[in-house]
Amino acid sequence: MSQLFEVHPHNPQPRLLKQAAQILQAGGVAAVPTDSSYALVCRLDDKNAVEQLRRIRQVDDKHHLTLLCKDLSELASYARVDNRQYRLLKLGTPGPYTFILEATKEVPRRVSHPSRRTIGLRVPDHQVLQALLAQLGEPLLATTLIAPGETLPMNDAVQIRQRFQKLLQAVVDAGACAMAPTTVIDLSGEKPVLVRQGRGELARLGL
Asked: What's the CATH code, domain 3-205?
């Protein structure tokens, strides 16, 4: 049975987030709110948890997973970033943008793209998720919580818990999310490439 943590969306209770962080540190997979939609998350270094996350979403190793970082300095530990890329990242963080970048050796090969050695990274603009990342002290590996056979993300924490209670160890309930995907920008090549237009406006990045 997954544990439900009902937290205030703007002033989350540290005690509850600490308990959720402890579940993640122990190898759990959790559903958490973000500034785009609910997401499945686990620790980057936990092989079993990563495999469980992929099983829940029913995706293979070619599906790009995203690393949720608390700030730009943390992001730079997991991706190779030059000055041009850094300027774009600074404009888009925190916010609803996912940037595809070349992964550093800090990222295990099993979670980067198998042929390109890239990883999606973002700094979410969501108080509850930021507080959870601060409690955890490390980034979280994530994928949008879309139930198998569905096309839209799930947006009700109680329904998420009911559907996945035997597969998830924790659900953090901070109310409904925006229900719109992030804008995905591939920065791994010579020029920025728009992979998906979502919540994030290209004008904010000067593109």
From this structure: 3.90.870.10
